[in-house]
Design a protein that fits this description.
eIF3d, 10-stranded mixed β-sheet, translation initiation factor activity, alpha+beta, 5-stranded mixed β-sheet, cytoplasm, 2 domains, 555 residues
Length: 555
């Protein structure tokens, strides 16, 4: 008996393209792109010789084995469900976030003058004189330390729940959004700026102790408490800037701390805000009292940043610890026997009221020309800071500190190396990890050093004596770097930073006189410019003033 092999019918596509021909396509699939596989399936065969019945059974078995999520079918597997869209599943992936409860939980510090000492209290403050609306209204509100980095990309991290961060300032119902800038747009900005002009210098500067450069993992040195005063007054409270403003020395006035946040904005994750006031043809960039400018973040850019907890490794505790470490380290590396350089007295120090000695700090007021057209005059006056001189008084340096708390804890970084064991032999890997996890903080330090005209940056590596003790620390090493080279190593574009600054200035210049607030969205890569009432922060100041005037109960 002979058997004849009969070929099954083959639908030939006469136009030669992939997929069924238009003549053989069912009417329900007309004008729909051909998509025979699900997005998560790999193309393993160029032709399937199974019959439709076999294919249907095979698809059913495969779906049972793979357990397709909530009945989602393969793309194009059903005539009635093109592209496998499931409405109810899409709805389940959507949720609303209520910000009303967080707005009422904002911390306040009132109208306090920025002042830092090295004690265990970490950041202290001293009440300044009561001021009028213009300069005084800027130092209200508080820093919400709960806000820490949201979900990041990265292998294995896409399914983790995203964190909801708090805004650094409560957005008032009468605030009006004027402009919105997304980070991709900011990254495309660029502007070249010439060398600045030095206008004035004030403060007292001392030499750097070179003995600290010999510290390594075999020659450690304990971090010591330094009871020295360091100021961080906002722009409008600076008496020298007030004088330069009256002399029409510039169009825009700021501090290096505020300007560095703006120039490094696309790297930021946590929320921040800058209060901007236009007075006539002049613009002032200010901070509010207790704003994030005065408290250092820790691993803000890490894939999994520190948790929002109240323990010693929580985000808020680590920020205060980092601020405390940075202040004490900056003062400890000073050679107190070196000759002090004081071109002009410290503009914020009051010898009649202060008891602690001053920390080594030189304030340099520098003017940058941001003009674009030849007939344009747009000068930016910035108060910058340097921490010491090296060798001779003209060789200026800045001093900063990185801190290690516990490499095994959340937020310490992926596969973080123990500094005490590996800093001498694997410093490159440790530096790379810090550049990744603290990208915005290190970028700001590099920009601040560049603005100040510092020749060198000194970066200290500070580790806890015991991972469970946040009060005692050890210096395990120090690194030197040129600010511009360090910025280049981190892919920090100074021209991009100047482009961002000029763009924000142009935005404000288009507005009438008044007060504005630039806010980095807490959960999106975008900054917004708000128009706010002149008394936007006066209510918080009055509440804080009443609170401080109330007598304490007798114990």
């Amino acid at each position: 008996m002979s058997l004849n092999f009969v070929l099954p019918p083959i639908h030939d596509n006469e136009d030669g393209s992939w997929g069924p021909s238009s003549s053989a396509l069912p009417p329900s699939f007309k004008d729909i792109p051909y998509a025979p596989f699900a997005k998560n399936e790999k193309l393993s065969r160029v032709a399937d010789w199974h019959t439709e019945a076999d294919a249907g059974a095979s698809n059913q078995r495969r779906q049972q084995q793979q357990g397709r999520r909530q009945g989602r079918e393969a793309y194009g597997a059903s005539d009635s469900n093109a592209f496998g869209y499931v409405h109810d599943e899409d709805e389940k992936s959507f949720s609303l976030v209520d910000n009303s409860s967080r707005a009422a939980a904002r911390g306040r510090t009132g109208g306090l003058r920025g002042r830092t000492t090295g004690g265990r209290g970490m950041v202290s403050a001293q009440r300044g004189p009561q001021r009028g609306r213009a300069p005084g209204a800027f130092q209200r509100g508080g820093y919400s330390s709960r806000g820490r980095g949201g979900g990041r990309g990265g292998y294995g991290g896409y399914d983790k729940p995203q964190r909801t961060r708090d805004s650094s300032v409560a957005i008032g119902p009468d605030w009006q959004v004027l402009e919105e800038l997304e980070f991709p747009r900011l990254n495309k900005l660029s502007m070249g700026v010439d060398e600045p002009e030095n206008l004035e210098s004030a403060g007292t500067l001392q030499g750097y102790d070179k003995a600290f450069d010999r510290i390594n993992t075999r020659n450690l040195k304990n971090l010591e408490i330094q009871e020295r005063v360091r100021y961080s007054e906002t722009t409008s409270e600076d008496p020298i800037i007030k004088k330069l403003s009256e002399q029409k020395a510039g169009t825009v006035f700021a501090t290096d701390s505020i300007l560095s946040v703006l120039m490094c904005a696309p790297r930021s994750v946590n929320s921040w805000d800058i209060v901007i006031e236009r007075r006539g043809d002049q613009i002032f960039l200010d901070k509010r009292g207790g704003a994030p400018f005065d408290v250092l973040s820790v691993n803000e850019n890490a894939i999994e940043p520190p948790a929002d907890s109240d323990d010693l490794n929580g985000a808020a505790s680590l920020s205060l610890e980092a601020t405390y470490i940075n202040h004490n380290f900056t003062s400890q590396v000073i050679d107190l026997k070196s000759k002090a350089y004081t071109p002009n007295p410290n503009p914020f120090y009051d010898a009649a009221e202060e008891t602690e000695p001053l920390a080594s700090t030189l304030y340099r007021y520098r003017k940058f020309d941001l003009s674009i057209e030849e007939d344009e005059e747009l000068n930016l006056v910035v108060r910058t800071e340097v921490d010491a001189y090296l060798g001779k008084k003209s060789h200026l340096i800045t001093v900063k500190a990185l801190n290690e708390y516990d490499p095994r804890q959340q937020g310490a970084g992926n596969k973080a190396l123990d500094w005490r064991k590996n800093l001498d032999t694997q410093k490159g890997a440790i530096v790379a990890n810090e550049m990744k996890n603290n990208s915005v903080k290190l970028a700001r330090w590099a920009v601040q050093s560049y603005l100040a005209g510092a020749e060198l940056m000194k970066l200290g590596y500070i580790s806890r004596v015991n991972p469970r003790d946040a009060q005692r620390h050890t210096i395990v090493g120090i690194q030197s770097a040129k600010p511009v080279d360090f910025a280049r190593q981190m892919n920090v574009s100074l021209n991009n930073g100047w482009g961002i600054v000029r763009t924000v200035i142009d935005m404000v210049m288009k507005q009438p006189e008044g007060m504005y607030v630039l806010v980095k969205d807490p959960n999106s890569p975008v900054i917004r410019l708000y128009s706010v009432p002149d008394n936007a922060f006066e209510e918080e100041e009055e509440e804080e003033l009443i609170h401080h005037q109330q007598p304490e109960d007798d114990e």
